Q: What sequence folds into this?
C-alpha cells in the first residue's frame, strides 16, 4: 500500500519529460511553432534553434528520466530495512560532469559566432534603403526619393506599411523619436531595439514576395500592443512603380478619391 | 507562545479575499450625459448664466430622448433620418467579440475607447495623459478636412485620418485595418458626433423653453426629428458636396520664385502667418491661445474663480462648488494650443500640398488658425504652400528634417530690424 | 582543526528552560522585536501577503492575454467607463507591478528576509544575529517600500507602468504614459527602501556567519542553506549600491531635470523631457549589473534549502558537498560578468554580445554541476515522499527546464528571434516560480514545525503540491512553444497580428491553468493557518534531520539554544555505518566508526 504512494509520485515526475517532449512534438503540427522564414539568413538561426533544442532535449530527457528512475527505485517503502547508501560523492564523476558540459557549452558559444556576425556585425556597404523611426505608437517610414539620399525634400514619408524589393540587400536605418522600441520581423528573424539618439543599421534580404508583420518588441508605453506594422516584399519593377505611386500621392495638388 | 503571535496576520488576508470576491457583476456600458453643458449652457458665448442649468428631471428627459434616438453603446439605434448605416455601426459598436462568421465586432471598443471614451467625449482613461488631448466628438467640430471651416468632414477625410494617423499627436495610423473596418469606425465616429450634437441641441431647446412649457419639451417624434436631428444630420450629408475647389498650382513659375513669393506673403499683412508661427516659423509667435474645446473650460474656470473670490451670494457659491465637482470629472485641465512649428516637417493634417492648401484656405476649425479664404488669393495660397513645404529643409535646402529642429533661428532677409530689436 | 570538548549537558530532550527574554512588552516582543525568529516570521507573513497580491495581479494579466478587451470579472467594476474592459495602460501597470511585487516584495525578502533570518542563527548555533537592531531595521525598512508600491496604485495615472526594468526614456519622461508620473517616482523610492533593507540584512548575515558560528562549526561544516545565504549576502553587498545609485540617477532625471538617460532632441508625447546629453543604454547596463546578480540572489538560497531537504528525506549525505559550495561561489562570481546577455538586442555593440555569450554559456556550468549533484544525492537513497520532499524534488525537476531554456537565450543568434517573447517568460517563471517558489514551499513545509511547534497536514500538503505542480506546468510549459512562434511579452492584445492571431485558445488554456494554480493556494493558506494552531505537535526533531536547528525546542525560545551546541561533524551524516539510527546529528557525541567513515569519504 505504502509503495503505491512512491510509485504515484515517481510517475508524476515521469510525466514531466513525457509531456514535455510531447508538447514540442505536437507544436509544429498545430501551427504553434516557428513562423515561416522568408529571409536569407533565417535558416541559420532556425537550424541553431533546432540544434540547441535537440541538445537540451537530450539532456532534459536523460536527467528527468534519471530522476524518475531514482524515485521509483529508491522509494523508502521499496527499500525495506536496507539503509541508504553512505556516499559523499565521487571525484571522478564531478570531473566528468564538469568537463563535458564545459566543452559542449564552449563549443556552442563558438559555433554561434558566425551567425551572429552575419546578422549584426557584417554590415553591407550601401546607403540605407529606408529609414524606420519608432514613435509612440507607430512606425514612421522615410524612403530616399530620386536622389537616393535621406533628409532631402524628395523623401517619401509613410506610416506602418513598409514595402521592399525582394531578393535584394536591404539596409534599414533604425531610429526612435521618443522611447525605446524594438523592430521585430518574426518572419525575417530580425529583432533590433530602436534607441533614441542612435542610428542603428539593420540588414536582411527577403526571399519571398508577400506581406508579414512588424511587431514592436520592447515596451514603449500604454499603446505598445498596437504598434503594428506590415512589411511587404515585391519584385523590383513593382517596387519602383509603387514608390512612384507613393510619391505622386504625396505630391498631390488635387483631392484624389480612392 | 510563538504560535499565538501571528493572529493579527490572518486578518488582512481574510479581509483582502473578502474584498476582492465580494463584488457584483459589471454593469453594462452606457453613455454619459454631457454634464458640463447640462449645468452650464453658454448660448451667448460671453456669459455664463447661473439660472440656466438643467434640472435633474430635465437631465433625465434628455437622457431618455437620447436613448430612444440613439440606443446604448452595446446596441446603437439609428433612425433613418440620421443618415447612419446601421450595419456598419453594429460592426463598430458593443463589446469586443467575434460574430458567427468570425469577423471582429466591437471595433470602437478595441481601438478607440481608451482615448476617446465610450461616449466619444475624449475622456477615455488614457486621455488625461495625452498631449494634445484626444478629440471630443460631441460638439461635431473636426479639424482636418477638405471642406470649409464650418462644414463637416467628408467620409474620405475621416478615412484618411484613420489611415495616416495624425502625426505629431497620439493618434496612430490604422492603415492595417481592412477598408470595411475603417468604414465602420468612421461611421461610428459620425454616430457619436451626431449623438453629441443632438444632445447639445436638446439641451439648448430646454434653455429656450418659456415658462408655460413647464420645463418639458414637446416630446413628439416629429418635433424631435424635424427640429433637432434632421438639421444636424443634413450638415453631415451635405459635406460630400462641399469640398473646397482647389485651383491648379500656378504653372510656369520657378519653384524658387514661388517660394520667395510665399515667403513674402508669410510675413505680409494679408496672410500674416508670422503673427502666430513666428519669424523663424518655429511656432513661437504666440503661446497663450486655446482651442475651442478648452476655451469654454477656461472661461468657466475664470468665472468660478471669480465666484470664489468675489462677493457672490450663498446660492452662487453652492452652484460654483457643485460645478467644480462636475468639471473635475468631466473636463480635462485646459492646455494652450501652440502654433505649429513649421520646421519639423510634421504636418498633422497631412503633408500633401493639397492638404496644406486646405489648412490655409479654410483654417482649422476649433483652433485659432484662421481661414485665408477671401483675404488671400487662391494662387497666392499655393505660393505659401510651397514656402511652407521648403521650411524643414532650411533656407539653403540642404538641411535634414531631423536637424532642422535644432537649427538656430534663421533671419529671413528683410527682417533685419527684428534682429536688431 | 582544533579539538573541542564535549558538552557536559546531554540528553537534550529533558532541558526545556529557555533563556528569559530581557524586556517583555507586546511591542518589543512582537512588533519591534529584535529576535531573529520573530523578524523572520514578520518577513514571512508580509511576503506571503504580497505573494497573494502578486498572484492576483498575475491572474488579471493572464485574463487580458487570454480574452483581451472582454469584461473582467470582479475587477471590471473599476473600469465601468469602458464597459468593464481593461484599458491597455492598466494592463501595462498590472504586469509591471506583478513583476515588481514578486521580485522585490516576495522572492528576495522571503528568501533572505524570512528564511535567512529565521535559519542562520539556528543553523550555525548562534543566540541571535550579530546586529539585532540592524536586523529589526531591515524589516521595518520594508514598510516604506510596501507603502510606496501599494499606494502608487491610488495616485493619478496609477502605479508604475514602465515594466519592472523601468527602461528610460519611457520611465524618465514623466509624460510618456500614465503611471510614469507619481507611479514611477514611488516605484523608485520603494526600490530604494527595498535596497536599504537588503543591504542591512546582508551586512548582518555576513557578520553573523563569519563570527558567530558555534564551536566546531567550521566553514565546511556549514549546511548548504547557510553557504547559499552567505554568498547571496556577498552578492547583495556588491551589487546593490549600483542599483541604488542608478535609481537615484533616474529619480534625478525625473525630478531635477538632469539628463543621465535621455539623449538630445528627444520629444516624448510632444514634450521635451529634459536637457538631453545622456544615453538610455546606460540605465540598462547599470540596472542589469545589479539585476543579473539579483537573479542569483533569487535562486541560490532556494538551492541551498533544497539541498538540505533532499538529503534529509533521501536519508543520504549530500553528493559532492565541496563541488556544491564551489559552484555556488562560481555562480556568484560569474554572475557579475554576464549582465550584457539581457541587452543583446539593445543596440549595444554587437561585438560585446560575443563576450557576454561566452560568459553566459559558462555560467550554465556550475548550475549543471549542482543539478547532477542533486541527482547523485537521490541516487541510492531511501526516499521519504513527504510534502516537503516533493516540493524539493520538483525544484530539481523544474530547475532543469529553467536552466536548459536559458541556453537558448544565451545563444545570441537564437536570441534574435526569441528575445522578449514568451520563451523568456517561460524561462524565468521556470526558474523563479517553478524553481524558487517551489523551493520556498519545500522550506515552509520543512521548517514549519520549527517555526510554530506543529507540523502541517501532510495529506493536504500533497494535494497542494500535486495541483500546483500540474497547473504550473500547464501554465508555463506552453509558454515555450508560444515563444517559438515569437509571441511577444507585454502585449495587451497580440491577436491582431497575422502571426499570432491563432494563439488565443492556447492562451486561454494557460489562463485556466493559472486560475487553477492560484485557487490551489487556498488549500495551502488553510493548511498553513489551521496547522499553526491545530496541527500535530512536533518535537524537537520531527524529520530526524541533522542540523543544529533541530536540537532546539520547537519553537525555540529567546536565545535559541538551551545549552551551548558543539559541532562534531558536517550536516549530512545520514545513514552512516556503525550507528543504530540512520543519522548522526551535528551535535551528537563523536562516534568512532561513523566519524572514521566520514573522514574517509571526504
A:
Amino acid at each position: 500500500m505504502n509503495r503505491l504512494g512512491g510509485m504515484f509520485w515517481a510517475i508524476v515526475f515521469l510525466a514531466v519529460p513525457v509531456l514535455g517532449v510531447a508538447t514540442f512534438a505536437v507544436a509544429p503540427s498545430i501551427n504553434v511553432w516557428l513562423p515561416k522564414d522568408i529571409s536569407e539568413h533565417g535558416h541559420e538561426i532556425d537550424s541553431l534553434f533546432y540544434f540547441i533544442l535537440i541538445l537540451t532535449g537530450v539532456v532534459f530527457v536523460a536527467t528527468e528520466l534519471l530522476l524518475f528512475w531514482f524515485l521509483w527505485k529508491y522509494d523508502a517503502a521499496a527499500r525495506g530495512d536496507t539503509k541508504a547508501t553512505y556516499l559523499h560523492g565521487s571525484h571522478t564523476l564531478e570531473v566528468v560532469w564538469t568537463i563535458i558540459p564545459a566543452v559542449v557549452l564552449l563549443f556552442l558559444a563558438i559555433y554561434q559566432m558566425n551567425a551572429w556576425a552575419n546578422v549584426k556585425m557584417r554590415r553591407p556597404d550601401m546607403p540605407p534603403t529606408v529609414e524606420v523611426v519608432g514613435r509612440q505608437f507607430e512606425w514612421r517610414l522615410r524612403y530616399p526619393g530620386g536622389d537616393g539620399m535621406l533628409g532631402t525634400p524628395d523623401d517619401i514619408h509613410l506610416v506602418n506599411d513598409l514595402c521592399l524589393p525582394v531578393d535584394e540587400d536591404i539596409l534599414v536605418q533604425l531610429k526612435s523619436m521618443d522611447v525605446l522600441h524594438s523592430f521585430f520581423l518574426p518572419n525575417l528573424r530580425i529583432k533590433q531595439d530602436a534607441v533614441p539618439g542612435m542610428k542603428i543599421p539593420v540588414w536582411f534580404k527577403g526571399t519571398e514576395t508577400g506581406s508579414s508583420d512588424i511587431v514592436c518588441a520592447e515596451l514603449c508605453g500604454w499603446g505598445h500592443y498596437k504598434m503594428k506594422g506590415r512589411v511587404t516584399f515585391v519584385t523590383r519593377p513593382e517596387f519602383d512603380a509603387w514608390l512612384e505611386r507613393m510619391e505622386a500621392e504625396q505630391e498631390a495638388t488635387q483631392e484624389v478619391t480612392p | 507562545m510563538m504560535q499565538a503571535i501571528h493572529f493579527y496576520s490572518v486578518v488582512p488576508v481574510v479581509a483582502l479575499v473578502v474584498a476582492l470576491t465580494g463584488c457584483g457583476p459589471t454593469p453594462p456600458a452606457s453613455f454619459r450625459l454631457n454634464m458640463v453643458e447640462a449645468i452650464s449652457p453658454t448660448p451667448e458665448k460671453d456669459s455664463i448664466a447661473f439660472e440656466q442649468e438643467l434640472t435633474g428631471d430635465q437631465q433625465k428627459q434628455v437622457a431618455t430622448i437620447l436613448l430612444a434616438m440613439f440606443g446604448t453603446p452595446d446596441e446603437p439605434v439609428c433612425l433613418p433620418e440620421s443618415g447612419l448605416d446601421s450595419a456598419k455601426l453594429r460592426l463598430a459598436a458593443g463589446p469586443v467579440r467575434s460574430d458567427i462568421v468570425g469577423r471582429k465586432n466591437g471595433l470602437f471598443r478595441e481601438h478607440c475607447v481608451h482615448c476617446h471614451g465610450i461616449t466619444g467625449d475624449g475622456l477615455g482613461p488614457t486621455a488625461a495623459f495625452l498631449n494634445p488631448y484626444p478629440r471630443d466628438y460631441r460638439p461635431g467640430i473636426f479639424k482636418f478636412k477638405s471642406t470649409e471651416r464650418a462644414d463637416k468632414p467628408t467620409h474620405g477625410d475621416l478615412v484618411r485620418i484613420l489611415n495616416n494617423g495624425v502625426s505629431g499627436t497620439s493618434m496612430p495610423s490604422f492603415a492595417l485595418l481592412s477598408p470595411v473596418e475603417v468604414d465602420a469606425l468612421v461611421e461610428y465616429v459620425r454616430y457619436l458626433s451626431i449623438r453629441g450634437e443632438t444632445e447639445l441641441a436638446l439641451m439648448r431647446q430646454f434653455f429656450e423653453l418659456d415658462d408655460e412649457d413647464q420645463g418639458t419639451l414637446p416630446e413628439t417624434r416629429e418635433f424631435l426629428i424635424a427640429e433637432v436631428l434632421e438639421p444636424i444630420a443634413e450638415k453631415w450629408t451635405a459635406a460630400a458636396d462641399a469640398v473646397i475647389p482647389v485651383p491648379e498650382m500656378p504653372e510656369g513659375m520657378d519653384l524658387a520664385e514661388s517660394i520667395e513669393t510665399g515667403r513674402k506673403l508669410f510675413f505680409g499683412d494679408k496672410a500674416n502667418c508670422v503673427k502666430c508661427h513666428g519669424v523663424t516659423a518655429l511656432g513661437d509667435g504666440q503661446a497663450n491661445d486655446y482651442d475651442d474645446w478648452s476655451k469654454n473650460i477656461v472661461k468657466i474656470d475664470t468665472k468660478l474663480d471669480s465666484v470664489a473670490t468675489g462677493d457672490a451670494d450663498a446660492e452662487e457659491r453652492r452652484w460654483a462648488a457643485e460645478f467644480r465637482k462636475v468639471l473635475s470629472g468631466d473636463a480635462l485641465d485646459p492646455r494652450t494650443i501652440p502654433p505649429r512649428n513649421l520646421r519639423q516637417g510634421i504636418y498633422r493634417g497631412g503633408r500633401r500640398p493639397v492638404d496644406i492648401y486646405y489648412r490655409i484656405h479654410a483654417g482649422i476649425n476649433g483652433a485659432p488658425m484662421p481661414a485665408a479664404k477671401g483675404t488671400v488669393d487662391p494662387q497666392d495660397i499655393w505660393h505659401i504652400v510651397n514656402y511652407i513645404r521648403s521650411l524643414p529643409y532650411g533656407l539653403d535646402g540642404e538641411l535634414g528634417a531631423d536637424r532642422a529642429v535644432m537649427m538656430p533661428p534663421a533671419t529671413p532677409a528683410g527682417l533685419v530690424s527684428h534682429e536688431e530689436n | 582543526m582544533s579539538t573541542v570538548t564535549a558538552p557536559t549537558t546531554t540528553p537534550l530532550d529533558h532541558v526545556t528552560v529557555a533563556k528569559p527574554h530581557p524586556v517583555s512588552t507586546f511591542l518589543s516582543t512582537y512588533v519591534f522585536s529584535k529576535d531573529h525568529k520573530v523578524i523572520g516570521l514578520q518577513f514571512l507573513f508580509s511576503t506571503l501577503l504580497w505573494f497573494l497580491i502578486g498572484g492576483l495581479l498575475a491572474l488579471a494579466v493572464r485574463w487580458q492575454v487570454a480574452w483581451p478587451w472582454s469584461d473582467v470579472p470582479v475587477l471590471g467594476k473599476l473600469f465601468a467607463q469602458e464597459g468593464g474592459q481593461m484599458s491597455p495602460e492598466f494592463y501595462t501597470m498590472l504586469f509591471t507591478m506583478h513583476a515588481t511585487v514578486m521580485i522585490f516584495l516576495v522572492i528576495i525578502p522571503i528568501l533572505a528576509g524570512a528564511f535567512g533570518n529565521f535559519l542562520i542563527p539556528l543553523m550555525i548555533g548562534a543566540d541571535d544575529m550579530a546586529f539585532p537592531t540592524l536586523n529589526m531595521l531591515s524589516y521595518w525598512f520594508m514598510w516604506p517600500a510596501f507603502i510606496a508600491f501599494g499606494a502608487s496604485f491610488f495616485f493619478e495615472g496609477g502605479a508604475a507602468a514602465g515594466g519592472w526594468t523601468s527602461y528610460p526614456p519611457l520611465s524618465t519622461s514623466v509624460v510618456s504614459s500614465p503611471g510614469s508620473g507619481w507611479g514611477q517616482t514611488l516605484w523608485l523610492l520603494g526600490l530604494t527602501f527595498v535596497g536599504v533593507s537588503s543591504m542591512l540584512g546582508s551586512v548582518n548575515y555576513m557578520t553573523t556567519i563569519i563570527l558567530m558560528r558555534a564551536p566546531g562549526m567550521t566553514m565546511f561544516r556549514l549546511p548548504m542553506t547557510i553557504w547559499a545565504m552567505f554568498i547571496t549576502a556577498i552578492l547583495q553587498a556588491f551589487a546593490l549600491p549600483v542599483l541604488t545609485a542608478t535609481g537615484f540617477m533616474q529619480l534625478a532625471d525625473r525630478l531635477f531635470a538632469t539628463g543621465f538617460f535621455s539623449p538630445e532632441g528627444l520629444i516624448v508625447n510632444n514634450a521635451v523631457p529634459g536637457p538631453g546629453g545622456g544615453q538610455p543604454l546606460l540605465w540598462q547596463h547599470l540596472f542589469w549589473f545589479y539585476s543579473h546578480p539579483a537573479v542569483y540572489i533569487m535562486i541560490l538560497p532556494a538551492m541551498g534549502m533544497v539541498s538540505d531537504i533532499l538529503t534529509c528525506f533521501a536519508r543520504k549525505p549530500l553528493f559532492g558537498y565541496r563541488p556544491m559550495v564551489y559552484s555556488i561561489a562560481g555562480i556568484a562570481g560569474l554572475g557579475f560578468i554576464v549582465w550584457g546577455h539581457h541587452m543583446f538586442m539593445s543596440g549595444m555593440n554587437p561585438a560585446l554580445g560575443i563576450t557576454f555569450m561566452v560568459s553566459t554559456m559558462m555560467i550554465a556550468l556550475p548550475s549543471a554541476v549542482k543539478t547532477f549533484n542533486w541527482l547523485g544525492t537521490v541516487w541510492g537513497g531511501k526516499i521519504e515522499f513527504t510534502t516537503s520532499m516533493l516540493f524539493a524534488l520538483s525544484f530539481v525537476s523544474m530547475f532543469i527546464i529553467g536552466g536548459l531554456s536559458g541556453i537558448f537565450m544565451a545563444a545570441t543568434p537564437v536570441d534574435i528571434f526569441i528575445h522578449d517573447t514568451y520563451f523568456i517568460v517561460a524561462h524565468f517563471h521556470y526558474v523563479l516560480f517553478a524553481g524558487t517558489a517551489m523551493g520556498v514551499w519545500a522550506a515552509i513545509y520543512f521548517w514549519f514545525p520549527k517555526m510554530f511547534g506543529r507540523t502541517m497536514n501532510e495529506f493536504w500538503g500533497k494535494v497542494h503540491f500535486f495541483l500546483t505542480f500540474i497547473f504550473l506546468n500547464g501554465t508555463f510549459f506552453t509558454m515555450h512553444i508560444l515563444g517559438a512562434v515569437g509571441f511577444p511579452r507585454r502585449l495587451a492584445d497580440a491577436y491582431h497580428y497575422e502571426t499570432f492571431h491563432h494563439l488565443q485558445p492556447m492562451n486561454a488554456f494557460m489562463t485556466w491553468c493559472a486560475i487553477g494554480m492560484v485557487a490551489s493556494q487556498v488549500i495551502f493558506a488553510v493548511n498553513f493557518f489551521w496547522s499553526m494552531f491545530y496541527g500535530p505537535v512536533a518535537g524537537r526533531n520531527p524529520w530526524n534531520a541533522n542540523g543544529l536547528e533541530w536540537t532546539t525546542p520547537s519553537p525555540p525560545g529567546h536565545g535559541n539554544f538551551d545549552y551551548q551546541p558543539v559541532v562534531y561533524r558536517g550536516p549530512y551524516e545520514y545513514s552512516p555505518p556503525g550507528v543504530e539510527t540512520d543519522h548522526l546529528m551535528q551535535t551528537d557525541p563523536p562516534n568512532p566508526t561513523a566519524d572514521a567513515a566520514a573522514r574517509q569519504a571526504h
In short: Confidence is low (pLDDT under 50) at residues 1-18 of chain C. Residues 47 and 105 of chain C are 6 Å apart (CA to CA).
